[in-house]
Amino acid sequence: GPEPAHEPAPWPPPGAEPVDLTGFYDPASDDGLRYGEAFRGMRAAWRSGDDVLADIELPERTAADAGRYGLHPAALDAALHATALLASEADSGRITLPFLWTGIDLHAAGAAALRLRMTRLGEDEVALRLTDTTGRPVASVESLVLRPAAAGGPVRADRSHDSLFELVWTPVEPAATASPTVVHRCTGGTTAEAVHAETTAVLDVVRSWLAEDRDDAVLSVVTRGAVSVGGEDVTDLAGAAVWGLVRSAQTENPGRIVLIDLDPGDPGHATADAGPLVATGEAQIAVRSGTPHRPRLTRVSGDRSGSATPSTVFGDRPGTVLVTGGTGTLGSLV
User: Fold this and answer.
1) Helix H or strand E segment including 46
2) Domains of the chain: which residue ranges?
């Protein structure tokens, strides 16, 4: 839509009542949400009639990236924190979440400091107007409909796993007979050069195989230590990349390619016969201690009382877990 008029009016407007934000970002309980530095952007707030006014300012490190965005996600997130200030004293514990956006316009990009005017349009509906510190329009939202969060807040991921699944490898009996197969054995490796070389070689093999359009055999791509079956480390990084590549080819060409991963701790199976493994009918097989395993999705089981997070969600190994969308509703659940 057209850019709203520039409003170099006094800020905050005359008569606006300051809001005490002391403790605003403190968690409501020991297991409540904790806001990192980048997401504590609401610096000051006021109330004026049906409006909530706020100063939004990104911290220095986050502000340095503001130019990469039309509107920095942390700045928009901070603006939405003002919805908590709309509640009356009787509803002070009520939490609402964004539900339906209408009439979104971006008028300027890259702002790291903003002024917000949030206007109540009705029960759980607001309009937003964001300007820079001179009053120049940055973004506007004609209508944002809010929905109340479930009583007690979001259900933590360690308390309910009805929709949380994990990949597990389960034993499968090898077939008594062998199926005809053409075998390509990967060399493997742990360097970037090995990954590029191995995936290039396998891509050529797969393309040639599919071009032949054979129906008398399947192609077996064999790696060693390219997948983790029981939580062990992946030792063949090049093979892991091959598995990702071949899985895509399997999706597009079902029944024509089989992935087989041999036990990295058992070099005696270097020449294992792929025929009986192919005859299981599984598209992916991992052999560990002489036993073939197949991948299956299973529902994560855990302590529903919330006393402990099941180790199967992220594993017991130290390291960093990347949660994309971590500031939204889904991210808060994990």
Assistant:
1) strand 42-48
2) 17-148, 168-298
Neighbours of 255 (CB within 10 A): 10
Tell me whether the CATH fold assigned to 17-148 matches the one assigned to 168-298.
no
pLDDT tens figures, 202-216:
999 999 999 998 889
Q: In whole angstroms, give the CA distance from residue 173 to residue 271.
A: 19
Cα 278 from Cα 100, distance rounded (Å): 50
CA gap 299, 297 in Å, rounded: 7
pLDDT tens-digit series, residues 103-158: 999 999 999 999 999 999 998 999 999 999 999 999 999 999 999 887 655 555 45
Cα–Cα dist 17/52, whole Å: 10
CATH number of 17-148: 3.10.129.110
Q: In which residue are the tokens 């490190």 written?
A: 61
Q: Is 0.70 topped by the overall pTM?
A: no
Query: Would you tell me which CATH number, out of the four given (3.30.300.20, 3.40.50.11460, 3.40.190.10, 3.40.50.12780), belongs to the domain 168-298?
Result: 3.40.50.11460
The tokens describing 314, both together, are 């992220």
Q: Model confidence over 224-238: pLDDT tens digits?
A: 999 999 889 999 999
What is the full DSSP assignment across 80-147? HGGGGGGS-GGGTT--EEEEEEEEEEE-----SEEEEEEEEEETTEEEEEEE-TTS-EEEEEEEEEEE
Residue type, 253: N
